[in-house]
Amino acid sequence: MSEPIRAIVSGATVSNGYSLVLQVVKGNVFGHSTPIVLVMLDIPPTAAVLEGVKFELQDCALPNLIDVVAATDEKTAFTNIDYAFLVGAMPRKQGMERKDLLAANVKIFKSQGKALADYAKPTTKIGDVKDVIIWGNHSNTQYPDASHAKVNKGGKLLEAPAAVGDDAWLKGEFLSTVQKRGAIIIEKRKLSSAMSAAKAACDHVHDWFVGTK
C-alpha cells in the first residue's frame, strides 16, 4: 500500500465541509485505491458534532480510509498536511452580499494561511484557482462573459455564442441567472449552497492529482 495522503477539510460540521468529507474519502478525488488520512477542523464549540461526523465516516467502513482526525486547533489539524480543502468560514446568510461575507472571513483565512505555512508540508496542494480572469466578484455584479468561451459541438470547436445561437439569452436570462443564483438558493434553503461547491472542489483537486487525460 502506498503512503497515505493526509487531507484536511475545514468547517467539517457545516454544509460545505459536511458535503465534502465523504466525497474526499470514498475515492472521488484521489482514486479508490489511494489510502487517506482525513483531518477535520472546526471551532471548539463544535467538538462534539465533529466527533459525530467522525463516527459517521468510520461507520461507512471505507477500505481506503486509514484514519479520521477530529481537530479544533490549527497546529494539530495542519501538521504534515498534503492537500487542503479550506471551506470552513462564516456562512453567507440571507440579505448578505459577497463583499460582506469576505470582510467577515478575512481573519479566518489569514490564520489558516499562516497555519499552512507553519505546519503543513512544503508541497501542500490547496484547492484554489490561479491565473483565471473573473469579471467582477462572485455576487450580483459578476459578469459571466461567454464571448471568450469555446464549445465542442459535434466534434467541432466553436465559439460559445455561435454554438448557443441566442445572443439575447446569453446577455439576458443567462446573465441574470448566474448573478442571482446564490441569493435564490439562500432564499429557498435558508442557507448558502453547499453541494455544488463541494463537488467543484473535489473535481478540481481530482484533476490536479490524477490528471485530465
Describe the structure.
With 213 residues, this protein is α/β, with parallel strands linked by helices. The chain has two domains: 5-118, NAD(P)-binding Rossmann-like Domain (Rossmann fold); 129-207, L-2-Hydroxyisocaproate Dehydrogenase, Chain A, domain 2, CATH 3.90.110. Helices cover 44% and strands 15% of the residues. It has helices at 15-25, 47-59, 74-78, 98-119, 160-164, 167-171, 173-189, 195-210; strands spanning 5-10, 36-41, 65-71, 83-85, 125-126, 150-153, 156-159. The strands form two sheets. The protein has a five-stranded parallel sheet. The protein is globular and about 50 Å long.
Compact overview of the structure:
The protein has 213 residues and is an alpha/beta fold. Helix content is 44%, strand content 15%.
